[in-house]
Each structure stands twice: as C-alpha cells, then as structure tokens.
Model the fold of this input.
Amino acid sequence: MSSGCPRAALHQSEPHPDPYAVYARMRADHGPVVPVELEPGVHGWLVTDYATLISWSRDTTTFTHDARLWRDFTEGRVNPDSPLLPMMAPRTNALFVDGAEHQRYRRALTDGLGAVEPDHLRRITTRYADRLIDEFCERGRADALNEYARMLPLLVMNDLFGFNEDQGLRFVNAMRNLWLGVDAEKSNAEAERALSEVVTARHRDPGDDLTTRLIQHRAALSDEEVIMQLLLITAAANEPTANLIDAALRAVLDGSAGFGTASPSDASLNELVDRVLWHDPPITNYPVIYPRVDVPLDGGRVIEAGSPILLGFAAANHFFVRENAEQMEETVNRAHVAWGAGPHRCPAIDEATNIAIIAVRVLLNRLPGLRMAVPRDQLRWHLTGLSWIPVQLPVEFDPQVPPPPDPVEGTPWSPSDSPQETSEPRQPTSVGSGLSSLSNFLVRLLRGS
Ligand code: HEM
Ligand code: HEM
Done:
C-alpha cells in the first residue's frame, strides 16, 4: 500500500521501521482519511481515525461491504491475477454482502459458532497446544510463531469443522502453502476440495460439528454457500488469531506485559490481550467498505462511489490512544477497534480470546525458563498492509521430556476423558492417532523435511 508515500517502509522485512511513524506522516500530508495505492494503478483510501472508522462501519446507508460495488473491479481495471482479489473480489460469504443477505449468513455463522461449548473449545485448544509442544519440548528451542501460534488456530478450526485426518492434512497443507504464497491457485483448489468433501460426508453422516450445523441451519444454505462460509471462517480466524498469540507472547517475553513467565493469572492474561488489541492489533488494516455515493472530505477532496476504503484498525487505535492518554491510563478498556465495528464486527471474539489466552498459558506452563532466543531488536519482520508479524519467533527454554506415549493410541478422544484445562501436571492423554500424526505432519512440513 502506498500514498505517494513510503510504500517500501510498509513492506520491509527488517528492521521494524515503526509503521506508526509512516501513518503519522500520511496523516500530516492528507488528514485522517488517506489516499492509498493498493497495488500499482489500483487506488483506494485508508481510514486512520477512530471515530470515522466506527461511524462509517455502522453507516450502512452510505457504505457497504458489498464488493460488487468496487468500481475498478467491475469495470475491468483490476488484473485477474491480482493478489488483492482473494480478499477483495465479490464472494457469497458474510463479509462481502450486506442487509438481508448478510443477516442470513451471519445468523448461520453465529448460531453455528454459538453452539460450540466454551468448555469444549478450551479442552481441544489445550489438547492441541500440548500436542504441538510435545513435538519440540525436548529440543530446548523452537519457533513459537510457525511451530505453535500459526498451527494452533488451524488445528482447532479443523476440529470444529469435523475434518477426518486425511482431509485435515490436505487442508492444513493447502492453507500453509497459501500463507507462503506457494502455488496459490492449486492450494486454493485443494482447500476447497477438502471442504467440499467434508460437506458431502456430513450430509451422509451428520456430526456434532460446525459443518453439520451450517448444513442444517434454517437459513438453508446451499453446499456452495456452506463451503464459502467455512472458507471465510478459516481465512478470518487463522492468521489474526496466530498474530494475537504471537503479539501476546512477545509482550510476555520482552517484559512489556508487566508480569513474568511463571503462571500468570487469567486476569493478567485477559488484560494483556486487551492491551495487545489496542497497541499491536492482529489485523493492521482490513475489511474494505465501499461508499454507495460520492463522499466529500475536508479540504475539498471526494471519495468517489465504489472506491475501496480500508479500515485502519492499528492506526485508529494508536492515534485515539495518543489523543486520549489520560483516560487510557486509568483503566484497561475494551473500546479498541481491533474486532471491527458495526454489523460485520467479528462474531468470534470470545473464541479468539480464549484460544489466544490458552495458547500463552499452556506454553508458559509447559516450558520453564521460556525466553526469547534473539534480542527483540534483532527480530526480522514481515510487514504488509494487512499485518505486522515477525518472520519467526525464536524461543529457548529448559528442555523437557515429553509425556509418555498415549497408552490407548487410536482411541478417539472424547471430552469425558480429557484432562482439566490447566496443562500441569500433565496426565498421559488419549488423543486419537489422527491428531498425533497431524501435528507430526505439521512439524515436518515446517521443518521442510
Ligand atoms: C484475534 C483474532 C481475530 C481478530 C482480531 C478478528 C477480527 C475481525 C475483524 C476486524 C472482522 C471484520 C469486522 C468488520 O468488517 O467490521 C472480523 C470478521 C469476522 N471474523 Fe474475526 N477476528 C479474529 C478471530 C476470528 C475467529 C477465531 C473466527 C472464527 C472462529 C472469526 C470469524 C470471523 C468472521 C466469520 C467474520 C466475518 C463476519 C461478518 O462479515 O459478518 N474471527 N474479525
Ligand atoms: C492478519 C491479517 C490477514 C492476513 C495476513 C491474511 C492473508 C490471507 C492470505 C495469504 C490469503 C490467501 C490468498 C490467496 O488465495 O492467494 C487470504 C485469503 C482470504 N482472506 Fe485473509 N488475511 C488476513 C485477515 C483476514 C480477515 C480478518 C478476513 C475476514 C474477516 C479475511 C478474509 C479472507 C478471505 C475471504 C480470503 C479468501 C478465502 C477464499 O475464499 O479462498 N482475511 N488471506
């Protein structure tokens, strides 16, 4: 993204160039709503102001999420191979429609997610976190981003979707390749194939999973629509939740969380998550809204109808905090915009928060002496218009012997035989063989072997 502005600065991989300084310069030049170039020749705007972001997200008369209004796209000015398209082109999912169409998808999603028992989510998250840690705990070092934070939300979502082992493996592989930009078209097709198979299987054999709940929902979604909502959840859930885990871990490890690595309380982890959502939000800038009519700005500029406007969550939070420093110091509050605002506001706030808190807690419990393996200023960064994330998060700890092998390997896990949410002391667990080989597979993939 650029604005005749320091495009390169937002794409460097090291060192961290302080994107907030970039936003401050943009705002000084243009005001709080900044013209940006999404890719060469494709123009849009970025909202960096808190109050504007909230009021425009709520004002569904003037603005819409409906990507069919994106004028450059509908008039053929966007290259069909553009990397913008997967996250911006019109699709039949909740994010890209409004009004009655949106409510139909949104209700199916919130009912489906709402039926996931919080205790179940906590148990499976703890279980997968433990399994991932088992893979590297003897080594005394790990990449806590790619071997852990990125894998955990994906494994949890796979479980909620009701994948079998084979579908899960293919899906994880395809998603990983998409993140890495490997053969995007093939990977996308593979991800869709795995989802299509799970939908067919759940028609035949309904289960206690999100896929079945979407299929059976009174909204009567077609199979294609079910697949589109599952893809949306995957896309919306994985990278942001991974980023939240990563940012919270970094804050603990560099001391800025204000507590050490020994057994932090739930209250301090909750507070930490809120602080991260203010200061290091998982999504720097995303969803896109389009004005239905020309929108005049101060200084005589006009946002033309059908221009993409990105919501700049990180900048909006940052400048709001700077302008309201006194109130901010009094209390940790949740008024940040990291979850969005208006009718499309994230429907999975509790789920994402729980996954992130459990991820941090289990890692700290399992790995005494956990510390960064490189000084903070030597982390290499991957900075894009969407998010700021280190390339790796190298950590060290006192090597740990993994728990003994599962005595009933192969027996499907059920909630009744699960250990308590806290992962210490750990009992031998009876996770199904599928999960064990799935996490092995993931680690092999990540090692490139
Ligand atoms: C830290 C993690 C997460 C963050 C920061 C986050 C943030 C967001 C944001 C900013 C939006 C768009 C809001 C808007 O358009 O105004 C969104 C939408 C959405 N999120 Fe999340 N999210 C996270 C995790 C998740 C998870 C775990 C799930 C699913 C289990 C999920 C599912 C969705 C869906 C389905 C939408 C689209 C809703 C709609 O258009 O009505 N998100 N999220
Ligand atoms: C941290 C921020 C995020 C990053 C780095 C990210 C990255 C990506 C990547 C790499 C892809 C695959 C692109 C391809 O096919 O080549 C993708 C697809 C997609 N993302 Fe994001 N994403 C982020 C946040 C979100 C959020 C918050 C949402 C929705 C609320 C979202 C919605 C989508 C959708 C709908 C797709 C297309 C999925 C499909 O139908 O194939 N993303 N994203």
Remarks:
- The two ends are 35 Å apart (CA to CA).
- Residues 86-87, 91, 95, 178-179, 184, 188, 231-232, 235-236, 239-240, 243, 282-283, 286-287, 386-387 surround protoporphyrin IX containing FE (ligand 2) (CB under 6 Å).
- The chain has 17 helices and twelve strands.
